[in-house]
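Request: Mind sharing a record?
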Amino acid sequence: MGAGRDEIGYWDASVGRYRRRADSGAVFVRQGAPLAREEHVPSLGCAVQMSIRRSNIRNMPHDDSAASSQSLERGLALLTTFTPDQPALGISELAQRLGLTRSTTHRYVATLARLGYLSQDETTRKYRLGIRVLDLGFTVLGSLELREIAAPHLQRLTQNTGHTSNLAIRDDTDVILVDRFRGKPGRYHHLEFSLHIGSRIPSYCSATGKVLLAFLPQADLDDLLDRIELIARGPRALTKRPALLAELAQVRRTGLAVNDEEMDSGLRAIAVPIRSRSGAVVAAINLAFPWSPAPMSELTDQFSPMLFTTARAISSLVI
């Protein structure tokens, strides 16, 4: 049986967008279905909704109150009110479309403008989407393009090895899985089946995360490590900064990172970088293995050549 893409959603033509399956955090077609292709470029409003996890909102104080949830919904609704046909809107127009008072609308607009999601034209006093939304939109479009480039190569890698392959990008201190092909059923660790496209995992104890940390400029790496709590998630996790830095230096030298039961017991993986034409590391791919008595060096010797070959093939297509 061929590798199944771990996709858990479907395209709803009646409304012109992807829908999530009820038990899923992702937005793609269900596992085992033919690969779906989105036939239009997502709008920046759609990009905001798809990328909200990547925004500064997740760094704000946590509040589960109904009022806070309502504010978030209203803020997103406000952003998606802007369209290519009407890119600039005033407070009155926004209030009317959202069904809110002018004062309430102005409060939301002021907050979004302060965060960079809206900007105001000094002449017309109307608002339009800000640079921060463009950043999110380009991030989404870039990851979708990379996903389509990498998909056939990852599928072939999983078919040839029998093991799960993943494509991941970094989001601040974490890693996000943007594509995934599952290996042979019945042989994987429980954590493997709790991960899906869109899953967020720690960078310091995952193979893809180490790759994406290792090639950062030193100042950026130091800043991230200052904000990462090195806790023992798995029995072999590196919880001391000097030890992690030494391993990241090794990753830079070899181009290969390993996770040997560092994220959870029984879960192992190897990862390598995906580079753009400029040589910058833009993503990472990995192979994940169930635990076995074989030493990690044996797994890397056996599977790293195929992983490097796959990474080179993908990198050659990345602009």
Summary: Confidence is low (pLDDT under 50) at residues 7-62. The radius of gyration is 21 Å. The chain is about 40% helix and 20% strand.
